[in-house]
């Protein structure tokens, strides 16, 4: 039946149920607006990170790390761009070129899941996830380096990572096989296992990192007797929680909607790849500006390292005073006691946790 101006019912989709129409609507919004907004956030963070890394490189601070971090975020950004471009192209084909596909545009997107262009998008999605998980292993190693548990903890993390990588690879292969898709019966089983595993992996690794930070904080406060010196540890722990919480929450919500096959799953699936990039960008940005735990931080702040802890104390007024060395349970602390005109005070100098 051709559409006419005096018959509004003829404008409606042909042979589509209300659920099909809802799927089409949510898929369109997710693939365009939601994905576009998420990509915009990624683009902004990427440019900020590049600028910070350039400044770090020019300052001669950990130049090799700046280079490798730049390569890492550029690859992540490129993968996010591929995923966004594929989403846009599939949306165009579904809603413009083949708008009358049986079952609607959302059904078309499922139908072409095994085509080369969609395989490129799916591959970019999973590679992004694997790189994100790999970054967590590196950060965990940085935190536990110098600890007697470093090998055990890092080995455990690597085993978990290999498990998520393997399950992700199987899910990707099963999803892009001819006549298969991300929503086929076989792929769903592997996808559920993969997302449950990768979400658990993120939670466990983040928990181990926070536990390490709090343990060092407790030891440092116990050794120095100065509770205010441990505030930076809480800041780092909060940073880790913030960086990992977004992807974890996003992944859990998507997993629940994916299990029940609710149309809103498209909102979270379309932006999940970009969300996976946002978390490592936040971490690398904070590392580049010196607000994250580096490989020698534990060595600097604990007796197990090769270097010693140094906390400088100064005041902003006209000062006179001497520096004293104190050793608390093998943690060496240098304190400058400065005296102003009428009072003496101790002020902790900001120093980079690097």
TrEMBL record:
Residues 304-324 are annotated as: Disordered. It comes from the Eukaryota. The keyword Zinc does not apply. Keywords: Membrane, Transmembrane, Transmembrane helix. The chain crosses the membrane at residues 36-54, 66-86, 106-128, 149-173, 193-215, 236-260, 266-285. This is G-protein coupled receptors family 1 profile domain-containing protein.
């Amino acid at each position: 039946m051709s559409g006419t101006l005096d018959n509004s019912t003829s404008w409606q989709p042909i042979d589509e149920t209300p659920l099909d129409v809802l799927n089409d609507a949510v898929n369109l919004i997710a693939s365009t607006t939601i994905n576009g907004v998420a990509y915009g956030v990624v683009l902004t963070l990427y440019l900020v990170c590049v600028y910070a890394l350039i400044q770090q490189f020019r300052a001669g601070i950990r130049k090799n790390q700046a280079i490798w971090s730049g390569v890492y975020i550029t690859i992540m950004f490129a993968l996010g761009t591929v995923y966004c471009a594929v989403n846009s192209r599939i949306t165009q084909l579904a809603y413009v070129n083949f708008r009358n596909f049986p079952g609607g545009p959302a059904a078309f997107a499922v139908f072409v899941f095994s085509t080369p262009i969609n395989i490129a998008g799916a591959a970019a999605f999973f590679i992004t996830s694997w790189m994100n998980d790999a970054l967590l292993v590196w950060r965990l190693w940085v935190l536990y380096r110098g600890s007697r548990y470093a090998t055990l903890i890092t080995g455990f993390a690597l085993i978990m990572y290999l498990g998520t990588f393997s399950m992700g690879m199987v899910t990707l292969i099963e999803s892009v096989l001819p006549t298969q898709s991300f929503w086929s019966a076989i792929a769903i089983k592997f996808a559920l296992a993969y997302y449950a595993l990768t979400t658990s992996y993120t939670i466990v690794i983040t928990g181990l990192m926070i536990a390490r930070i709090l343990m060092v904080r407790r030891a440092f406060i116990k050794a120095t007797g100065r509770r205010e010196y441990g505030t930076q540890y809480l800041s780092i722990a909060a940073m880790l929680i913030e960086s990992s919480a977004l992807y974890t929450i996003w992944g859990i919500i998507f997993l629940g909607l994916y299990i029940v096959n609710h149309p809103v799953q498209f909102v979270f699936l379309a932006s999940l790849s970009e969300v996976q990039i946002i978390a490592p960008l936040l971490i690398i940005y904070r590392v580049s500006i010196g607000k994250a735990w580096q490989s020698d931080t534990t060595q600097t702040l604990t007796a197990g390292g090769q270097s010693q802890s140094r906390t400088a104390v100064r005041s902003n007024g006209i000062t006179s005073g001497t520096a004293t060395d104190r050793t608390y349970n093998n943690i060496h602390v240098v304190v400058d006691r400065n005296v102003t005109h009428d009072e003496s005070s101790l002020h902790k100098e900001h120093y980079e946790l690097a």
